[in-house]
Amino acid sequence: MSLGLTALELARIQFAFTVSFHIIFPATSIGLACFLAVLEWRWLKTQNPVYKALFKYWIKIFAVAFGMGVVSGVVMSYQFGTNWSEFSRIAGSVTGPLLTYEVLSAFFLEAGFLGIMLFGWEKVGSRAHFFATVMVAIGTCISMFWILSSNSWMQTPQGFAIENGIIVPKDWLAIVFNPSFPYRFAHMGTAAFLVSSLLVVGTSAWHLVKGRRDELVKKSFSMGLWMVLATSCLQVFIGDNHGLNTLEHQPAKLAAIEGHWETNYNESMPLLLFAIPDMQAEKNKFEVGIPHLGSLVLTHSLDGTVKGLKDFPAEDRPNATIVFWSFRVMVGLGMLMVGLSLLALWLRKTNRLFEASWFHKFAMFMGPTGYIALLAGWVTTEVGRQPWVVYGVLRTQNGLSHAVSAGQVGISLILFVVVYTIVFGSGIYYILKLVRKGPLTLEEISTTPHRQVQTAMRPLSTVDEPIDNQKESQEKHHD
User: Which position has the higher pLDDT, 120 or 179?
Assistant: First the structure.
């Protein structure tokens, strides 16, 4: 069942589908793990029960996201041996060790301390538990380090030689710290914190809209907004530097992002706000732009020259239509995030942060935008790298397995869609139920009988109370 597409097209769609499901969970767990470490640190320092209550609420959402991330990541990696065995054969001597380092240094660290973090609150000392939480948070960041190193090497490969058609590593420092890695690691790390902080803000805003005004909701709303302020503004700076790095090392991708066809030798380059790139006609339709600003942003000069797509062979150009718009979705949402944080600053100054219902609705709307921007950013990165799986070294079509047919990949893609929709759709629904339920108030915590998980076998055991009594819970909070 090929669906009228080639094996290469179906294999790319399958990988894009699975990685899109996967990336939202690690991004959530990376940010929430660090948020949990901050909450526990604040509780140890102040003994304020609000921080402990928030920790015990957000660790449930973290546990579900972490579990979903592990499962989806394992499934995704199998495609390197099924659909992309030629890529693994040719480039596996570089990508294989990098992914192995991730398992040895990060996954084992997370697995070793995760049980203590999730289920050890009443079983180990407070400092030992905090140490476990910090180790899990560090483990998630180390995992991101190795994954981004591997992916960045595919974007800007360094430190290798080709021997008998096989990529052979020669300089591991050059491989790990390849030219785009520092920028992409900082960009993704900041994005993960931004995603999770917007989740915290959106969840808190939901309960503010519903009428809750207790200290737990206010505290999480305030802390989340401070993090959005820091990360959204930092992301603007990181994104600018990442763009300059892309201009130097992946000029075709940068030209596609900007919808830039003709090299501007004798004039400045505009910054296009709207356009419909036409790959066949090699031009844009319905252009709307700001004169001179493109050169200023990309070269920091009003008359800077940027290489156009026409200077690259047609077979080496990424799909400008997709990349142009995915980039603008990411940047547009990023600007809304900056606006959200600046509005929050103004409301703090006027003492209306917890009373401005219009702002709470805006913040609630912004809750999921971090995930949309994250996915749009990865579309820009991966589609912009095409037609290369290892930029300038190995074409995507040459990384496809010889043995797979369009029918085989089509059937497996349909199965992936069905299974992922059921399994991970259920996981997302479960998280949304937890979000809607919200944290227990301090009064509810003090009157709720203590229950302890007897057999801590899996992360989902962390959620140890019913989440379906939403109507009664909301009425109680409103009263």
Answer: 179
Contact status, residue 366 vs residue 201, Cβ threshold 8 Å: yes
pLDDT recorded at residue 449: 59
Q: Burial letters for 302-317: b for 16+ Cβ neighbours within 10 Å, e otherwise?
A: eebbbbbbeeeeeeeb
Structure tokens at 366: 């912004």
Cα distance between residue 455 and residue 13, in whole Å: 40
CA distances from 259 to 252, 302, 317 (A): 10, 18, 12
* Beta carbons within 8 Å of 445's beta carbon, 6+ residues apart: 49, 53
The letter for the amino acid at 263 is T
pLDDT of residue 450: 56
Question: 189 near 141, Cβ under 8 Å?
Answer: yes
Report if pTM > 0.85.
yes
Q: Measured in whole angstroms, how far is the alpha carbon of residue 458 from the centre of its chain?
A: 24
- CB-based contact 284:275 (threshold 8 Å): yes
Residue spans of the domains in the chain: they are 234-402
CA 394 – CA 83 distance, rounded (Å) = 16
Report the 10 Å Cβ neighbour count for 230.
15
CA distance 395 to 402: 14
Closest CA to 358 of 249, 209, 188: 209
